[in-house]
Protein backbone atom coordinates (compact mmCIF):
# COMPACT_ATOMS: atom_id res chain seq x y z
CA UNK A 1 0.00 0.00 0.00
CA UNK A 2 1.26 3.48 -0.88
CA UNK A 3 2.34 5.58 2.11
CA UNK A 4 -0.28 8.03 3.32
CA UNK A 5 0.31 11.78 3.44
CA UNK A 6 -1.88 13.95 5.65
CA UNK A 7 -2.00 17.74 5.37
CA UNK A 8 -3.74 19.25 8.37
CA UNK A 9 -4.78 22.62 9.77
CA UNK A 10 -5.46 24.48 6.52
CA UNK A 11 -8.55 26.19 5.24
CA UNK A 12 -9.59 23.48 2.79
CA UNK A 13 -11.86 24.57 -0.07
CA UNK A 14 -14.36 21.78 -0.69
CA UNK A 15 -17.36 21.60 -3.05
CA UNK A 16 -19.54 22.16 0.04
CA UNK A 17 -17.61 25.17 1.34
CA UNK A 18 -14.51 26.00 3.38
CA UNK A 19 -13.39 23.59 6.11
CA UNK A 20 -11.42 25.69 8.59
CA UNK A 21 -8.69 23.70 10.27
CA UNK A 22 -9.40 20.94 7.75
CA UNK A 23 -7.26 18.17 6.41
CA UNK A 24 -6.60 16.23 3.23
CA UNK A 25 -5.25 12.68 3.28
CA UNK A 26 -3.50 11.27 0.22
CA UNK A 27 -2.76 7.64 -0.59
CA UNK A 28 -0.68 7.06 -3.70
CA UNK A 29 -2.03 9.23 -6.54
CA UNK A 30 -5.52 9.68 -5.02
CA UNK A 31 -7.25 11.66 -2.31
CA UNK A 32 -8.28 9.31 0.49
CA UNK A 33 -10.15 11.85 2.61
CA UNK A 34 -10.86 15.57 2.65
CA UNK A 35 -12.81 17.65 5.12
CA UNK A 36 -12.89 18.94 8.67
CA UNK A 37 -10.47 17.44 11.16
CA UNK A 38 -12.27 14.61 12.99
CA UNK A 39 -12.81 14.87 16.72
CA UNK A 40 -11.61 11.28 17.04
CA UNK A 41 -9.58 10.00 14.07
CA UNK A 42 -10.40 6.40 14.93
CA UNK A 43 -14.17 6.85 15.00
CA UNK A 44 -16.04 5.12 12.15
CA UNK A 45 -17.73 7.55 9.79
CA UNK A 46 -15.25 10.40 10.27
CA UNK A 47 -13.47 11.90 7.27
CA UNK A 48 -10.14 10.44 8.39
CA UNK A 49 -8.73 6.92 8.44
CA UNK A 50 -5.71 5.63 10.34
CA UNK A 51 -2.88 7.91 9.85
CA UNK A 52 0.40 8.58 8.22
CA UNK A 53 2.80 11.43 8.85
CA UNK A 54 0.95 14.71 9.34
CA UNK A 55 2.19 17.93 7.74
CA UNK A 56 0.93 20.94 9.67
CA UNK A 57 -0.18 23.55 7.10
CA UNK A 58 -2.02 25.81 9.54
CA UNK A 59 -2.43 29.36 8.29
CA UNK A 60 -2.59 28.21 4.67
CA UNK A 61 -5.22 27.40 2.07
CA UNK A 62 -5.57 24.04 0.32
CA UNK A 63 -7.37 24.23 -3.03
CA UNK A 64 -7.71 21.87 -6.00
CA UNK A 65 -5.08 21.91 -8.72
CA UNK A 66 -5.89 24.38 -11.48
CA UNK A 67 -7.30 23.32 -14.86
CA UNK A 68 -6.31 25.50 -17.83
CA UNK A 69 -8.56 25.21 -20.89
CA UNK A 70 -6.56 27.60 -23.05
CA UNK A 71 -2.76 27.68 -22.98
CA UNK A 72 -0.29 28.11 -25.85
CA UNK A 73 2.95 27.52 -23.95
CA UNK A 74 5.34 28.70 -21.28
CA UNK A 75 8.87 28.53 -19.99
CA UNK A 76 10.11 29.64 -23.42
CA UNK A 77 8.33 26.77 -25.18
CA UNK A 78 5.47 26.86 -27.70
CA UNK A 79 2.80 24.18 -27.89
CA UNK A 80 2.36 25.00 -31.60
CA UNK A 81 5.97 24.70 -32.73
CA UNK A 82 8.07 23.19 -29.92
CA UNK A 83 9.65 19.75 -29.83
CA UNK A 84 8.22 17.09 -27.52
CA UNK A 85 10.80 17.98 -24.87
CA UNK A 86 10.02 21.69 -25.22
CA UNK A 87 6.27 21.10 -24.90
CA UNK A 88 6.87 19.01 -21.78
CA UNK A 89 9.01 21.83 -20.39
CA UNK A 90 6.14 24.26 -21.00
CA UNK A 91 3.66 21.96 -19.27
CA UNK A 92 5.97 21.58 -16.27
CA UNK A 93 6.48 25.33 -16.08
CA UNK A 94 2.74 25.81 -15.58
CA UNK A 95 2.58 22.91 -13.13
CA UNK A 96 4.99 24.79 -10.89
CA UNK A 97 2.41 27.57 -10.86
CA UNK A 98 -0.44 25.27 -9.83
CA UNK A 99 -1.83 24.15 -13.21
CA UNK A 100 -1.99 20.40 -12.72
CA UNK A 101 -4.24 19.86 -15.78
CA UNK A 102 -3.40 21.53 -19.10
CA UNK A 103 -5.11 21.64 -22.47
CA UNK A 104 -2.59 22.58 -25.18
CA UNK A 105 -3.80 25.31 -27.52
CA UNK A 106 -2.49 25.77 -31.04
CA UNK A 107 -2.52 28.98 -33.07
CA UNK A 108 -3.42 29.47 -36.72
CA UNK A 109 -1.06 27.71 -39.11
CA UNK A 110 -1.00 25.74 -42.34
CA UNK A 111 -3.41 22.81 -42.18
CA UNK A 112 -0.64 20.26 -42.67
CA UNK A 113 1.30 21.75 -39.74
CA UNK A 114 -1.77 21.66 -37.50
CA UNK A 115 -2.44 18.04 -38.46
CA UNK A 116 1.13 17.11 -37.52
CA UNK A 117 0.92 19.03 -34.25
CA UNK A 118 -2.35 17.29 -33.41
CA UNK A 119 -0.63 13.94 -33.82
CA UNK A 120 2.28 14.90 -31.59
CA UNK A 121 0.14 16.53 -28.88
CA UNK A 122 -2.23 13.57 -28.87
CA UNK A 123 0.70 11.31 -27.93
CA UNK A 124 1.35 13.53 -24.90
CA UNK A 125 -2.35 13.30 -24.04
CA UNK A 126 -2.21 9.52 -24.30
CA UNK A 127 0.64 9.38 -21.79
CA UNK A 128 -1.21 11.68 -19.37
CA UNK A 129 0.79 14.90 -19.74
CA UNK A 130 -2.05 16.82 -21.43
CA UNK A 131 -5.80 16.80 -21.01
CA UNK A 132 -6.29 17.33 -24.73
CA UNK A 133 -5.95 19.81 -27.58
CA UNK A 134 -7.64 23.15 -28.28
CA UNK A 135 -7.46 24.43 -31.86
CA UNK A 136 -7.62 28.23 -31.87
CA UNK A 137 -7.79 29.04 -35.57
CA UNK A 138 -7.52 28.92 -38.50
CA UNK A 139 -11.33 29.15 -38.72
CA UNK A 140 -11.61 32.68 -37.34
CA UNK A 141 -12.61 36.10 -38.63
CA UNK A 142 -9.99 38.27 -40.33
CA UNK A 143 -11.81 41.24 -38.78
CA UNK A 144 -10.93 39.96 -35.28
CA UNK A 145 -7.77 38.00 -35.97
CA UNK A 146 -5.76 39.35 -33.03
CA UNK A 147 -2.34 37.65 -33.03
CA UNK A 148 -3.17 35.20 -35.83
CA UNK A 149 -1.72 35.38 -39.34
CA UNK A 150 -4.40 36.69 -41.69
CA UNK A 151 -2.76 34.95 -44.66
CA UNK A 152 -3.42 31.57 -43.04
CA UNK A 153 -7.05 32.11 -42.02
CA UNK A 154 -9.80 30.15 -43.76
CA UNK A 155 -13.53 29.61 -43.53
CA UNK A 156 -14.65 26.77 -41.24
CA UNK A 157 -15.26 24.14 -43.90
CA UNK A 158 -16.65 21.08 -42.09
CA UNK A 159 -14.32 18.76 -44.03
CA UNK A 160 -11.27 20.70 -42.78
CA UNK A 161 -12.68 20.81 -39.25
CA UNK A 162 -13.19 17.05 -39.34
CA UNK A 163 -9.60 16.57 -40.57
CA UNK A 164 -8.19 18.29 -37.48
CA UNK A 165 -10.52 16.45 -35.12
CA UNK A 166 -9.53 13.10 -36.61
CA UNK A 167 -5.82 13.99 -36.48
CA UNK A 168 -6.17 14.45 -32.72
CA UNK A 169 -7.17 10.78 -32.33
CA UNK A 170 -9.88 11.40 -29.76
CA UNK A 171 -7.99 14.12 -27.89
CA UNK A 172 -9.54 17.20 -29.55
CA UNK A 173 -11.26 18.95 -26.64
CA UNK A 174 -12.15 22.35 -28.08
CA UNK A 175 -12.07 24.39 -31.26
CA UNK A 176 -12.45 28.17 -31.46
CA UNK A 177 -14.17 29.42 -34.57
CA UNK A 178 -16.15 32.34 -35.96
CA UNK A 179 -19.50 30.71 -36.55
CA UNK A 180 -20.77 33.56 -38.74
CA UNK A 181 -18.34 32.56 -41.51
CA UNK A 182 -19.47 30.23 -44.34
CA UNK A 183 -19.68 26.70 -42.97
CA UNK A 184 -19.57 27.93 -39.39
CA UNK A 185 -22.89 26.58 -38.14
CA UNK A 186 -22.38 23.23 -39.84
CA UNK A 187 -18.94 23.04 -38.24
CA UNK A 188 -20.40 23.80 -34.80
CA UNK A 189 -22.86 20.95 -35.28
CA UNK A 190 -20.10 18.61 -36.44
CA UNK A 191 -17.99 19.42 -33.38
CA UNK A 192 -20.92 18.87 -31.04
CA UNK A 193 -21.65 15.51 -32.71
CA UNK A 194 -18.02 14.47 -32.12
CA UNK A 195 -18.01 15.54 -28.48
CA UNK A 196 -15.67 18.48 -29.11
CA UNK A 197 -16.41 21.84 -27.51
CA UNK A 198 -17.30 24.49 -30.08
CA UNK A 199 -16.07 27.83 -28.76
CA UNK A 200 -17.11 31.20 -30.17
CA UNK A 201 -14.16 33.54 -30.47
CA UNK A 202 -12.14 35.80 -32.77
CA UNK A 203 -15.54 36.57 -34.19
CA UNK A 204 -17.34 39.50 -35.77
CA UNK A 205 -20.77 37.92 -35.25
CA UNK A 206 -23.92 39.82 -34.45
CA UNK A 207 -26.07 39.01 -31.42
CA UNK A 208 -28.45 37.04 -33.63
CA UNK A 209 -25.68 35.06 -35.31
CA UNK A 210 -24.21 34.17 -31.92
CA UNK A 211 -27.59 32.95 -30.68
CA UNK A 212 -27.77 30.72 -33.77
CA UNK A 213 -24.32 29.31 -32.99
CA UNK A 214 -25.27 28.54 -29.39
CA UNK A 215 -28.45 26.84 -30.55
CA UNK A 216 -26.31 24.79 -32.97
CA UNK A 217 -24.20 23.55 -30.05
CA UNK A 218 -21.52 26.12 -29.13
CA UNK A 219 -20.89 26.12 -25.37
CA UNK A 220 -17.83 28.30 -24.71
CA UNK A 221 -16.90 31.96 -25.20
CA UNK A 222 -13.20 32.14 -26.04
CA UNK A 223 -11.63 34.89 -23.87
CA UNK A 224 -14.88 36.83 -23.55
CA UNK A 225 -14.67 40.54 -24.49
CA UNK A 226 -11.37 40.06 -26.36
CA UNK A 227 -11.30 39.64 -30.16
CA UNK A 228 -15.03 40.29 -30.61
CA UNK A 229 -17.27 43.35 -31.08
CA UNK A 230 -17.83 45.46 -28.00
CA UNK A 231 -21.13 45.37 -26.15
CA UNK A 232 -23.43 47.97 -27.68
CA UNK A 233 -26.83 49.24 -26.65
CA UNK A 234 -28.33 48.90 -30.14
CA UNK A 235 -26.06 46.15 -31.45
CA UNK A 236 -25.31 44.02 -28.37
CA UNK A 237 -23.17 41.65 -30.40
CA UNK A 238 -21.80 38.31 -29.19
CA UNK A 239 -20.98 39.40 -25.63
CA UNK A 240 -24.62 39.77 -24.60
CA UNK A 241 -25.63 36.50 -26.25
CA UNK A 242 -22.78 34.57 -24.61
CA UNK A 243 -23.34 36.06 -21.17
CA UNK A 244 -27.07 35.51 -21.06
CA UNK A 245 -27.22 31.87 -22.15
CA UNK A 246 -27.01 29.29 -19.34
CA UNK A 247 -25.46 26.77 -21.74
CA UNK A 248 -22.30 28.85 -22.22
CA UNK A 249 -19.14 28.95 -20.12
CA UNK A 250 -17.17 32.16 -20.53
CA UNK A 251 -13.36 32.24 -20.49
CA UNK A 252 -11.72 35.22 -18.79
CA UNK A 253 -8.05 36.26 -18.82
CA UNK A 254 -7.55 37.87 -15.42
CA UNK A 255 -4.11 39.43 -15.87
CA UNK A 256 -5.01 43.10 -15.47
CA UNK A 257 -4.24 43.74 -19.16
CA UNK A 258 -6.93 41.92 -21.10
CA UNK A 259 -9.85 43.03 -18.93
CA UNK A 260 -10.84 46.05 -16.90
CA UNK A 261 -11.97 44.94 -13.42
CA UNK A 262 -15.47 46.21 -14.19
CA UNK A 263 -15.69 43.90 -17.21
CA UNK A 264 -14.67 40.95 -15.06
CA UNK A 265 -17.25 41.90 -12.43
CA UNK A 266 -19.92 42.19 -15.14
CA UNK A 267 -19.14 38.67 -16.37
CA UNK A 268 -19.23 37.17 -12.87
CA UNK A 269 -22.38 39.03 -11.92
CA UNK A 270 -24.26 38.14 -15.09
CA UNK A 271 -22.99 34.62 -15.85
CA UNK A 272 -22.58 33.59 -12.21
CA UNK A 273 -19.63 31.80 -10.66
CA UNK A 274 -20.69 28.47 -12.14
CA UNK A 275 -20.22 29.63 -15.73
CA UNK A 276 -16.78 31.30 -15.57
CA UNK A 277 -13.45 29.66 -16.40
CA UNK A 278 -10.23 31.54 -15.77
CA UNK A 279 -7.63 30.79 -18.44
CA UNK A 280 -4.09 31.95 -19.11
CA UNK A 281 -4.06 32.15 -22.93
CA UNK A 282 -0.34 31.98 -22.14
CA UNK A 283 2.37 32.08 -24.78
CA UNK A 284 6.03 31.06 -24.58
CA UNK A 285 7.06 33.92 -22.28
CA UNK A 286 4.87 32.78 -19.37
CA UNK A 287 7.21 31.88 -16.54
CA UNK A 288 10.19 32.91 -18.67
CA UNK A 289 10.58 36.66 -19.16
CA UNK A 290 10.56 39.64 -21.49
CA UNK A 291 12.04 39.46 -24.98
CA UNK A 292 11.20 38.57 -28.58
CA UNK A 293 9.19 35.43 -29.40
CA UNK A 294 7.28 33.83 -32.25
CA UNK A 295 3.57 33.08 -31.96
CA UNK A 296 2.94 30.89 -34.97
CA UNK A 297 4.64 32.83 -37.79
CA UNK A 298 4.21 36.24 -36.09
CA UNK A 299 6.87 38.04 -34.08
CA UNK A 300 5.91 39.10 -30.56
CA UNK A 301 7.64 41.45 -28.15
CA UNK A 302 7.08 40.96 -24.44
CA UNK A 303 7.76 44.05 -22.37
CA UNK A 304 7.04 44.26 -18.63
CA UNK A 305 5.09 41.03 -18.93
CA UNK A 306 2.72 42.23 -21.69
CA UNK A 307 2.92 40.42 -25.06
CA UNK A 308 2.16 42.40 -28.21
CA UNK A 309 2.73 41.80 -31.92
CA UNK A 310 5.81 43.62 -33.19
CA UNK A 311 3.81 44.65 -36.25
CA UNK A 312 0.55 46.34 -35.33
CA UNK A 313 0.80 46.11 -31.55
CA UNK A 314 -2.15 43.72 -30.97
CA UNK A 315 -2.12 41.87 -27.65
CA UNK A 316 -0.61 38.46 -28.38
CA UNK A 317 -1.79 36.09 -25.69
CA UNK A 318 -0.50 36.58 -22.17
CA UNK A 319 2.35 35.74 -19.83
CA UNK A 320 -0.14 34.81 -17.13
CA UNK A 321 0.08 31.83 -14.80
CA UNK A 322 -3.02 30.67 -12.94
CA UNK A 323 -1.58 31.26 -9.47
CA UNK A 324 -1.33 34.95 -10.39
CA UNK A 325 -4.89 34.88 -11.75
CA UNK A 326 -6.04 33.40 -8.42
CA UNK A 327 -4.28 36.02 -6.33
CA UNK A 328 -5.56 38.90 -8.43
CA UNK A 329 -9.13 37.57 -8.33
CA UNK A 330 -9.10 37.56 -4.53
CA UNK A 331 -6.85 40.52 -3.71
CA UNK A 332 -7.85 42.96 -6.47
CA UNK A 333 -11.26 41.81 -7.68
CA UNK A 334 -12.43 40.84 -4.18
CA UNK A 335 -14.12 37.66 -5.36
CA UNK A 336 -15.03 34.99 -2.79
CA UNK A 337 -12.42 32.25 -2.61
CA UNK A 338 -14.88 29.42 -3.42
CA UNK A 339 -15.97 31.28 -6.58
CA UNK A 340 -12.35 31.67 -7.67
CA UNK A 341 -11.68 27.97 -7.02
CA UNK A 342 -14.70 27.09 -9.15
CA UNK A 343 -13.44 29.25 -12.01
CA UNK A 344 -9.94 27.78 -11.86
CA UNK A 345 -10.75 24.13 -11.20
CA UNK A 346 -14.28 22.78 -10.95
CA UNK A 347 -15.85 24.61 -13.90
CA UNK A 348 -13.18 23.82 -16.51
CA UNK A 349 -12.95 20.21 -15.27
CA UNK A 350 -16.71 19.80 -15.67
CA UNK A 351 -16.62 21.40 -19.12
CA UNK A 352 -13.90 18.97 -20.23
CA UNK A 353 -15.82 16.02 -18.82
CA UNK A 354 -13.03 15.05 -16.42
CA UNK A 355 -14.63 16.22 -13.17
CA UNK A 356 -14.83 12.61 -12.01
CA UNK A 357 -11.01 12.76 -11.65
CA UNK A 358 -9.97 16.38 -11.11
CA UNK A 359 -11.32 19.81 -10.22
CA UNK A 360 -12.21 19.35 -6.55
CA UNK A 361 -10.83 17.92 -3.32
CA UNK A 362 -12.90 14.76 -2.90
CA UNK A 363 -12.05 11.16 -2.00
CA UNK A 364 -11.16 9.04 -5.01
CA UNK A 365 -10.07 11.93 -7.19
CA UNK A 366 -6.50 12.64 -8.29
CA UNK A 367 -4.44 14.15 -5.49
CA UNK A 368 -3.93 17.43 -7.35
CA UNK A 369 -3.76 20.32 -4.93
CA UNK A 370 -2.27 23.76 -4.43
CA UNK A 371 -1.04 25.17 -1.13
CA UNK A 372 -1.35 28.95 -0.73
CA UNK A 373 -0.36 31.18 2.16
CA UNK A 374 -2.61 33.71 3.83
CA UNK A 375 -1.78 36.26 1.11
CA UNK A 376 -2.63 33.72 -1.61
CA UNK A 377 0.98 33.26 -2.67
CA UNK A 378 1.69 29.76 -3.93
CA UNK A 379 3.66 27.66 -1.43
CA UNK A 380 3.30 24.13 -2.76
CA UNK A 381 1.88 22.05 -5.62
CA UNK A 382 0.99 18.35 -5.61
CA UNK A 383 0.06 16.41 -8.72
CA UNK A 384 -1.22 12.86 -8.49
CA UNK A 385 0.13 12.51 -4.99
CA UNK A 386 3.66 13.75 -5.71
CA UNK A 387 5.00 17.18 -4.80
CA UNK A 388 5.83 19.26 -7.89
CA UNK A 389 6.69 22.19 -5.65
CA UNK A 390 7.69 21.13 -2.16
CA UNK A 391 5.78 22.87 0.63
CA UNK A 392 7.43 26.11 1.73
CA UNK A 393 6.16 26.69 5.23
CA UNK A 394 8.89 28.85 6.77
TrEMBL record:
It holds the Pfam family Amidohydro_1. GO terms for molecular function: N-acetylglucosamine-6-phosphate deacetylase activity. Keywords: Carbohydrate metabolism, Hydrolase, Metal-binding. Its EC number is 3.5.1.25. The keyword Metal-binding applies. Residues 62-388 form the Amidohydrolase-related domain. Belongs to the metallo-dependent hydrolases superfamily. NagA family. This is N-acetylglucosamine-6-phosphate deacetylase. It comes from Streptomyces tropicalis. The gene is nagA.
Amino acid sequence: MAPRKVLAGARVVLPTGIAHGGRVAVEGPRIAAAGPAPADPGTPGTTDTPAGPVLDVSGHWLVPGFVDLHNHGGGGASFTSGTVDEVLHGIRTHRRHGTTTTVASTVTGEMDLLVRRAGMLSELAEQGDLAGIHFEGPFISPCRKGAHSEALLRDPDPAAVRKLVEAARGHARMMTLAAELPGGLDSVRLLADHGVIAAIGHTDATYEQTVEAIDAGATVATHLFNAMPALGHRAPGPIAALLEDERVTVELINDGTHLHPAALELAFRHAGAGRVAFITDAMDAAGFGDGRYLLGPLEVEVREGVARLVEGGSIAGSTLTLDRAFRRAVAVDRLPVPDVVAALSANPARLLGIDDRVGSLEPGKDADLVLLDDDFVLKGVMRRGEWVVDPQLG
